[in-house]
Task: structure prediction
Amino acid sequence: MSALLITVVWANVATPDQPCGDDSPCGADWLGMAEMGLAVGLLYWLPRLPEVTLMAAPALAALVTWLELPGAGPMALAANLSVLLALAFGWAAAAERLAARRRQRAAAAARTAGIRCPLPGPVSPLRRGTIPITAGLLLIGVAGFAVVQALDGISADQRRADGATRTSARVLSRGEESVRVRTDDARRLTLGVSYPQDYRVGETVTVLEDGTWRRLATEPYDAFGWQLLILADGLPGSSMLLTGLLARRRAAALGRAPVPALRVWERSDDHGRIWVYAGDDDTGGTPLFSGRFTARPPDVDQDETASDDDAGVDEDELFTIDTRLHEAVMFGVPYEGGELALATTDRAFRPVVIHTVGPIRLPRPGKGPVLSAEETDTAPAAPSTMDGVALALAPTGQPRRWGPSAFARTGSVVWALCLLAACTFVVDLLVTEGFGWKVLLLAGMPALAGSAANQLNWRVTADRSGLWLTGPWRVRHVTWERLRGARYTAGGDVRITLRDGSIWELTGLGWPKAELRLGLCPSYVRMVEEVTALHAHPELRPTELVSPRDRGLPMGPVLIVFAVLAVASWLVG
Result:
């Protein structure tokens, strides 16, 4: 992937742009768009979708050979040949990955000696791929709309050009996105162009005129904005659709008929991934593969287990995955990228069936589960660095609260104002210049608003029942029994891990380096340390419950509504 990225960038820099002329006017470069789309798509498909790589790499190689090699200079020729070499290596790597999967399936079939078992009832039906298929179809629909709009604009422009009057003119001056010309009948016109630097002062050009409609003959309708929208939606849309279809196909194969069953060892790590070991590896020395799984208890309906945390679900009935190394029965054929189900037990030794929510992956050499400490039936002991924090905490009946520091909150206010200004600027562009690829800028605003909401009003509240976690969009409740641990990273992120393997994460809470340089103790660092101490020492926990109004307010929806109202008032004004 890195080789392809480097060579593609090199080829783009080394290949000169062809100037436009009356005989070869600039226009929508669909082949160039396909070439760029395949190059960008392969950066994702190479590591994740070898099936697509086998088709996309030869297609890109054919386009490079056809479009770039003829008439290329020495530097451009070397760069494009390097692209072809990188594509050949990528194609060979994808073919080897698929061959390795076939060998893995054959080895698993030989190990089971033809034994097949039906899946346990609770694991079916498997609804894998529904979300990526739906999202992919929506994005492809938007890309199809952009294609229709681009072709319609090109066709309308060509009809006007065919019936227009051709007039010779001489270039007088150049602007940022326009040129000033003087026609043969002494009229002075200002015409919009994409690249004014391509027109020399004094050069003779051809102007097309049809009433008030004018343009240079070398500057047909610019469909670049629509083409960019096609790529921005078509590439992720097609990737999502293919990923969803593959997941649906593999999940359907898992539940369609009796499948191989093998005895294995499994354990969950601090990041919620489950690692599977061979049946004779009872020490957990060499993991075979890992993946993300979801659990459903045997006799509980899926809709009941998927209910929200604060919707009144009995916490004693919730299953938690055992993070210790223990035996399980694996259903399905294990291979890289496949779908599996595991019949295992939870921490209370109750039976539970878990199945993949994503393709399983082979671990990198030397990699294994990330475990902070071996877990036992009792609460884990606090690290030695937490002892001082526990001693400093005095038992109190009042709930404890943590939130952003004044330094971080000030920065988040500035960040939110910048987002509001950017949103207003984008809306102004859409109103004045029409809808096009710029609409994509608005799609990223909710994610940026979530980041600002994190910094502005994140909150963690500890009471007798557990933790109330306020993120950018909602408030989540985690009981002390379901809490596994809390940690922070050097980048200012907080990760609170639950016993079922799920993770609640807050990103970008502050600027650790700046806060430490100023001698400040980041509030999220203090929160993680004190939450860890409360988790390890139940006698220090608050004895009262927090009121609903003090659990925290997610600021993401508030910022979105405020931005919409501000932009609407600006447009009306």
